[in-house]
Structure formats: structure tokens, C-alpha cells
Amino acid sequence: MRELRKKRGYSQEDMLSFGFSTRHWQQVEAGRPITVTTLLRICEVFEVPMSKLVRGLDKEGVYEKLEPVVPLRLRKRR
User: Fold this and answer.
1) Would you call 16 helix, strand, or coil by DSSP?
2) What is the DSSP letter of 4?
3) Is residue 43 within 8 Å of 53, Cβ to Cβ?
4) DSSP SS3 for 14
5) DSSP letter for each residue of 17-60
6) Mind listing the pLDDT tens digit for each residue in 9-64?
7) pTM to 2 decimals?
8) 45 contact partners, CB below 8 Å, separation of at least 6
9) How far apart are CA 72 and CA 33, in angstroms?
10) What torsion do the CA atoms of 36, 20, 13, 2 make, to the nearest 10 degrees?
């Protein structure tokens, strides 16, 4: 994200004009988990398809670190 932002000539403070707080954007660039909504906003701001932003994540072992998502209907009730 940092590379994309810098290529477009934006500072972290510039991201305020797109609705991101400076702190939130710092967390995004630090690799903290983001929501799909945030990902969609980033795609819109930089006019980049989502596939380009997530391409290659599986090669970096990101998916291996994620816990599996179990649909609610399959979870055991306590």
C-alpha cells in the first residue's frame, strides 16, 4: 500500500481527503488486517482492481496464517 500511495504522489496526510485517518492508514501500511470495506475503498481511491491488490498474497504465506472460517451453521453451540 505504501508503494502504491507513493507512486501516486500522496503523503499519509493526503489520505485524510479520501476518508482515512492518518492512524488508520499507518496501520494499513504496517500490514494490519483490514476489512473488505477498507479494501474496496482503497481500490476506489487508487482506481486499481482488487485482484491486483491481493495477487500473490498466497505466495507469501498469508493464507496459511489465517484461521479457517467456519460457517455459523456448522459451529457447535455451547
Assistant:
1) helix
2) H
3) yes
4) helix
5) GGT--HHHHHHHHTT----HHHHHHHHHHHT--HHHHHTTGGGG
6) 999 999 999 999 999 999 999 988 888 899 999 999 999 898 888 876 666 555 55
7) 0.68
8) 15, 18
9) 22
10) 0
Torsion 22-7-56-60 (CA) sign: negative
Q: Which residue has the cell 496501520?
A: 27
**Residue 56 grid coordinates:** 500473490
Contact 17, 3 (CB under 8 A): no
Q: What are the grid coordinates assigned to 29, written together? A: 501500511
The amino acid at residue 48 is V
Domains and CATH numbers, the chain: 2-74 (1.10.260)
Cα–Cα distance measured from residue 38 to residue 20, given in angstroms and rounded to the nearest whole number: 9
